[in-house]
Amino acid sequence: MRGLWVDAFGPGLKTPAQVAQMVSDAASLGVNTLFVQTIRRADCFCNRASVPRATDSDLAPDFDPLADVLKLAHAQGMRVFAWASVTGAGNAAAPNTSPQHVLKTHGPAAGTESWVNRRPDGSYLQGSDIWLDAGIPQAAEYMVQSLLSVVRNYDVDGIQLDRIRYPDGGDWGYSPQALARYRSETGAKGTPLATDPAWIDWKREQITALVRRVVLETRRLKPQVWISAATITYGAPPADLKGFQKSRTYSDVLQNWPAWTQEGLIDLNVLMNYKQDLVPNHIQWFDDWNKFALSVRGKAEVAAGTALYLNSPEISRRQMQRALGAGLGWVGYAYRTPGVDVYKHGQSQPKGFEVLRRSLTQNGGPLTSTTWDVTPPTRYALLGRVVGSAPLGGREVEARSANGLLLASTTTDGNGYYGFVDLPMGQIEVRVAGQRWQQQLSQPGVARAPDLLVKDIGVAPALKQGKGK
């Protein structure tokens, strides 16, 4: 896998001429996959999605960038992934002007209808960015449907989940709705401290549950679509899973991506392994994060995402060589900023891209024209939902074989959904809240179990026995 990220913060996607030039440049570089920014801040660089079009004065009126990229890239034999900032809601310095935008209907001023992620003091800006809270069931449903609308309406080869996490800092998730739900599901009292382990674990599970729902719904619609995530590699790399659980990725932004690969949630893990070889320790950090990702890959493909914008083309060449030599694919960030001289020193994008192309492809460079034609792993999966008495979230669900062997367990999300993504073929028994349901998995794909009605019945206290009785 040889890929290139194409972001929407500069030239590349705004007009038909830009898209044609970008696809031509990518073909000359020899990449076989484009990760095209589609959902940026709860808005779309496309016309047929449930979220409004992006507000951008450089975006040609009525132009559909995603549709154009698909047409031109597919003609060149390249795959196209719709890259989505899942929890991104907006930027206060550059707001979307559509009255249908989520910040107009469920923004910071919407009171109990706000879906915005907050700190304990109620603040919600990270710099100028505003995030959605995955712990709010309605917000999670909105994010799921946004992605599905793209999958449903465009012939994408894959989707990539970006910003599928909490913001940096650890003290997020304090929207009133998320707190109320946490108390309801766990019995906790008061407001948890940001360092409370149970609270941290609960929030981390909200992100994984959101990934699980997106994955299962996408595979129901189009089983051939790849599911990818752009994953965090903060700080020194871990040697094993125990070490990963001490990392900022796991404990701060609450992104448990090794669990996603091992459970079978994602088919392609693209590390945002943005290291600079000239910074002390970064060469080793880059190599060891790649090594760790391979060790927990499950059935997933793994690619090293490198920061073209932070490095010279020669360093990008060396990083790519090391990644490919270790057995990973490669993705460069980004088309708009193909080298540090473009990003920081005023070099033009066309000039920087040409220097990068020569470095990666000529004189024994590592980027040769390669076909990436593998398909996602074949899986037997099950999606279901509990309905009825609150709370719907946090309920334990088991999948067992016909003879009662426990195959997998999970918990329901805030909307009552549960799912198992990699089960054996045959009869599966689902157990949840005292109910059982049997489902036959006879063909690859996602089977939809019927909704299960849950009625919580309180247990009457035992009568006290009188004397002599």
From TrEMBL:
Residues 94-115 are annotated as: Disordered. Keywords: Signal. The keyword Signal applies. The keyword Signal applies. Residues 1-278 form the Glycosyl hydrolase-like domain. This is Glycosyl hydrolase-like 10 domain-containing protein. The lineage of its organism: Bacteria, Thermotogati, Deinococcota, Deinococci, Deinococcales.
